[in-house]
Amino acid sequence: MNNKLSITYLILIIAPLFIGCGNEKEGNKNNASASSLSLHVGNEKYFMIDTKESVVTWKGSSLNGLNSQTGYIYISKGELMIENGQLMGGIIEVDMNTIEDKNHGTDNNLVNHLKDPDFFEVIKFPFSTIAITKVASINDENKNVTGNLTIKGITHSVTFPAQIEVKDGIVKANAKLVIDRTKWDVRYKSAKFYDNLANQTMSDSIEYHIKIVAQK
Q1: How many Cβ atoms sit within 10 Å of the Cβ of residue 109?
Q2: pTM (global) more than 0.85
Q3: Strand 170-180 and strand 154-167: pairing?
Q4: How many angstroms separate the CA atoms of 172 and 80, rounded?
Q5: DSSP, res 21
Q6: Which end of the chain is less crowded, N or C, counting CB atoms within 10 A of the terminal residue's CB?
């Protein structure tokens, strides 16, 4: 596999996460599988995530950092719990079938491969989620958010910084999350599991920029 193709694979693997953001693509993709996630619709404490205004942008790179690329993945549903103007909890569900990269979209062999058992086994695990378990305030808008991130049926706790604004019945959130993909059994081209990859080695760190808009 040539270096260009290897880098393209790398950047795509990060797409499988969770949380939405001001849609930089037109509309969300239709879910191939029905979600079983139940939300607190009608409960005044919960703000429903606007899936058309929310998106996750991912960034991946080669191990040496010389090559990188970005893409998107979309939220299928979610909610944020707000009490006294402060984020207290919530859950976000991402549709794994919406994996795409910025330059190639979704209809190509690389994206199809990412949906196979080699990567995310989307037929078996069509959704990924993050359930917020703790929010620590740094100041009025800046928080440290802790949650349980589930990908491929594997759950690990993650903590990441976020900016949260609650105003006029609308919640706007921007966050940055960096994970080690191998903890969720995404091992393709990882130096931890494969020898002699040379410049085809992909970084285990995946960076997500999360933008969420939620309202009652």
Answers
A1: 8
A2: no
A3: antiparallel
A4: 10
A5: -
A6: N
Quote the CA–CA distance of 15 and 106 in Å, as a whole number. 11
Rounded Cα gap, residues 31 and 43, in angstroms: 25
Query: How many CB atoms are located within 10 Å of the residue 194 CB?
Result: 13
Please spell the DSSP secondary structure of 50-77, one letter per residue: -TTS-EEEEEEEBTTSS-EEEEEEEEEE
Sign of CA dihedral 17, 23, 26, 32: positive
As a whole number, mean pLDDT of residues 205-215 equals: 94
**The pair of three-digit structure tokens given for residue 58, joined into one six-digit string:** 């991912």
What the block records as the tokens of 204 is 């285990």
Residue 24 DSSP symbol: S
Q: According to the model, what pLDDT value does residue 92 have? A: 97
Q: Distance between CA atoms of 102 and 108, rounded to whole angstroms?
A: 12
What is the 3 state secondary structure string of the chain?
A: CCHHHHHHHHHHHCCCCCCCCCCCCCCCCCCCCCCCCCCCCCCCCEEEECCCCCEEEEEEEECCCCCEEEEEEEEEEEEEEEECCEEEEEEEEEEEEEEEECCCECCCHHHHHHCCCCCCCCCCCCEEEEEEEEEEECCCCEEEEEEEEEECCEEEEEEEEEEEEEECCEEEEEEEEEEEHHHHCCCCCCCCCCCCCHHHCECCEEEEEEEEEEEC
Q: What is the SS3 assignment for 28?
A: coil
- pLDDT at res. 133: 98
pLDDT digits (tens, 9 = 90+) for 107-130: 677 677 778 887 888 999 999 999
